[in-house]
Amino acid sequence: PCPSVGPRGRLRAWPGARELAPRWGPARPLPRLLPRAARAAGGGGAGGAAAKAGGAADMTDNIPLQPVRQKKRMDSRPRAGCCEWLRCCGGGEPRPRTVWLGHPEKRDQRYPRNVINNQKYNFFTFLPGVLFNQFKYFFNLYFLLLACSQFVPEMRLGALYTYWVPLGFVLAVTVIREAVEEIRCYVRDKEVNSQVYSRLTARGTVKVKSSSIQVGDLIIVEKNQRVPADMIFLRTSEKNGSCFLRTDQLDGETDWKLRLPVACTQRLPTAADLLQIRSHVYAEEPSIDIHNFLGTFTREDSDPPISESLSIENTLWAGTVIASGTVVGVVLYTGRELRSVMNTSNPRSKIGLFDLEVNCLTKILFGALVVVSLHFAGRWYLQIIRFLLLFSNIIPISLRVNLDMGKIVYSWVIRRDSKIPGTVVRSSTIPEQLGRISYLLTDKTGEPLPGNEMVFKRLHLGTVAYGLDSMDEVQSHIFSVYTQQSQDPPAQKGPTLTTKVRRTMSSRVHEAVKAIALCHNVTPVYESNGVTDQAEAEKQYEDSCRVYQASSPDEVALVQWTESVGLTLVGRDQSSMQLRTPGDQILNFTILQIFPFTYESKRMGIIVRDESTGEITFYMKGADVVMAGIVQYNDWLEEECGNMAREGLRVLVVAKKSLAEEQYQDFEARYVQAKLSVHDRSLKVATVIESLEMEMELLCLTGVEDQLQADVRPTLETLRNAGIKVWMLTGDKLETATCTAKNAHLVTRNQDIHIFRLVTNRGEAHLELNAFRRKHDCALVISGDSLEVCLKFYEYEFMELACQCPAVVCCRCAPTQKAQIVRLLQERTGKLTCAVGRRRPAAPLAPASRGTGAEGKQASLAADFSITQFKHLGRLLMVHGRNSYKRSAALSQFVIHRSLCISTMQAVFSSVFYFASVPLYQGFLIIGYSTIYTMFPVFSLVLDKDVKSEVAMLYPELYKDLLKGRPLSYKTFLIWVLISIYQGSTIMYGALLLFESEFVHIVAISFTSLILTELLMVALTIQTWHWLMTVAELLSLACYVASLVFLHEFIDVYFIATLSFLWKVSVITLVSCLPLYVLKYLRRRFSPPSYSKLTS
């Protein structure tokens, strides 16, 4: 029976309610904030008992206990109690469901369409949405009001086009850019939604698009095809009755996952029989948890009805890729209820920190504008508004245009850089953010760091070790053992107990290699290569057609190594395994039991029976920390494990134990009984297995290296020297993550590592945080479970301590936890973060992102930048990020300077002429000043650079200077304001002093001096000349001279041809610019900036 959802989130009576209840507990109301006293008394729910348990510690703790903060829901589910009409379109509170196989019409609720949508807008919301995003910021709203005011005749100052044309141009550029990005996103989404799959129906197999798949459909997914929806695995074409999944597009982990079909449906003769049986799946409500699932499969038409429990092993989540065989599944969740979608935040428009800073400066300028207008206008209302309009140039509308066009240039330069080929810029609004990154969050298993290529490096037998250069000795030992066996008479059947004798080196090596070849979860798969078909290849064990599939690349590396030394895994199913010797003899082994690797046990074991001798052997491999207490006493294990770990190798300890038939039968009886128990099943099973794990014979140590991508270590070193702290967030095991951090030199050799022990409640978290607080200059390694507890009770304290660490490694992290960490880092530090995930073949980056929560292809589509290799990140930040930020800072301040100059001149002019609200320059002069006369030289600053790219890469300390935000600060802004006031006043007073008789001469002298001053100031600002800069200067000057012929309405053409005009303009320009050139020379001489020391 299905549970029903009662009011306030209660689950009514149902046997499985405890397991399927929401995460705040079974049959309890939604969480409320309790008073502090109530919480201290244990009313804080799950934390109450913990608070009591840790009561004694609380009195001496030096971390103040904070009130329990309920976390915001990090998923994208609709909230309970939303509009009723949402329920009719598949919205409302998610509920458990019963899904009938092949009958989507039999449904107890409406489900969302299976559509992937990464767009920010749709057809109807695009224009309103883009305009809202533009005008919600003060800068653009100010210009809109300014332009609208010109429709009032009393307020009009000049022609309408002088206000509406610049504003229209700004909006057109923004709308076109957003439209292009939306169209690209739409095309990518359409490609995913239009992928064709096969659906099983009563009429046979029919083709269906991904977007048309419904809950209850039976979908066939081929090898290397993306799973289109969250499904339950029913059947596979693989003979071993299982399949492998590639989940790196979902959780970032590159290890393949083993999935098992429902046993009842796998036994059916054909896939079409799925439609002939009466069966259904009962599943929990949609959840963001990609690592757990609870459900039940029931077949009603059998006698008695068959029920099977379903777990994560029976699921195929959307976004994963089938790595072996062809599978059939029944669809459980679609659309926004997919695990991958619920772990992804909604797409949004990103506004960079630089744009927010410019917006803030604009408000300061507006304040200055109001003050000046009030000072000039007195008390008259209309006069105040006219002066506001007259001095509106104080806030330059061209600033928005120049910055947006500059970002397009930066994006184009990044894409065209031959040293970082394949780089894609998806968000052209925030390239200068790359110049101010303080925290880089990277995903280990997302493969920005490792290249996912495992190499077997070391076999250690205690008295002798074999490295890559001595593997031929291992091969010769194996060959000699099997050659000797083939010449000796057959061994006696059954296990024999012989006295211990010193074995030869060959037999020791053989035992170690055989253990490695048998103790694993690897399956050999044969594929047709064009010459041999698949069935023939499998029959003949063709080497050229064989590929190994496993859930861990470590295991594949081990099996590939045993093949290289002569012992080859050629066949495997759920109950047997076949090895081939150097003499092409096939050894058959029966798999009696498998104990898979778990995060808690840190080891895996297998019991096999040798078919030729009948010997039963228990093989086990695992981490040294657990295996040290299992194997017989020895004096070399701990030391050699430490030596190999320091070399960056993943170390496994391999051991074995021979079992008598009676001993195994006794174990099997106890093991089966423990697995059938209802209470404490996992504890009882572990106890039975541990009864075997005693006094095992230590065979060898193996060392496998996770090959890094090219230049990962120098890149991380560069980032560290640039002042960027690197955090590694991974779904991988703690040991693997720690090993990768050491191997990549994320943690330097002289740094200690503090491994945050597993905590489950508030008291334990309290004590562990206190222990961590006492460590200094120490890298932190913490698991996702402990992280969740710390963030629940001590969010502020934990983030404060973690931010002081030189490096942080978070392992076993869920995608939503990664997003939460990015968000908390930004909120707590106010610094910019850059999140690096992975897809094939590019790594997406999301600067200033609050985390997408999903990785892989989904993340790449939502990413701002995609790079093909991790080493490209160094150049992207040190060169392009640094240049983009410095150029945008110089460009914005120069545009403000250009506008403040002309506004200062207007203020001087109005004050001299009795505060009259008369514009100094009208019509084309005011538009031409910001466009054809000065636009090209000013915009050419986007090509400027202070140092060569090679120097920027060689001295990453230059990047550290930018983290303080000095290129664009209140100090630099004030300096440019003072320069503008000085130059504007000098030009205007000079023109007023030197003009002779007519007012039109003032305009000619002042405007020409203004243009020349701007051109000279651009030349003063430029640090590295580019040929386009020279062209822009000369072209602008030529345009002004040529246009004088057509400006007789504003300028006396005959006057400008006189010598008097030339010397007056020269004197005024010299007085306005020469002091600044002198000051620049003196500053460079006595207080040079850091980059000038390198360029000299």
TrEMBL record:
**Active site residues of this protein:** D443 (4-aspartylphosphate intermediate)
- Kindly name one Pfam family recorded for this protein: PhoLip_ATPase_C
Q: Which GO terms describe its molecular function?
A: ATP binding; ATPase-coupled intramembrane lipid transporter activity; magnesium ion binding; protease binding
| Residue intervals of the P-type ATPase A domain | 199-337
Which Gene3D superfamilies does the UniProt entry name for this protein?
Calcium-transporting ATPase, cytoplasmic domain N, Calcium-transporting ATPase, cytoplasmic transduction domain A, HAD superfamily/HAD-like
- Topology term for the membrane: Multi-pass membrane protein
Q: Which residues are listed for Mg(2+) binding in this entry?
A: D443, T445
- Choose one Gene Ontology CC annotation of this protein and give it: late endosome
| EC number per UniProt | 7.6.2.1
Residues in a coiled coil are none
Q: Which reaction does it catalyse?
A: ATP + H2O + phospholipidSide 1 = ADP + phosphate + phospholipidSide 2
Enumerate the SUPFAM superfamilies for this protein.
Calcium ATPase, transduction domain A, Calcium ATPase, transmembrane domain M, HAD-like, Metal cation-transporting ATPase, ATP-binding domain N
Give the family, as the similarity comment puts it: Belongs to the cation transport ATPase (P-type) (TC 3.A.3) family. Type IV subfamily.
User: What is the name attached to this protein's record?
Assistant: Phospholipid-transporting ATPase
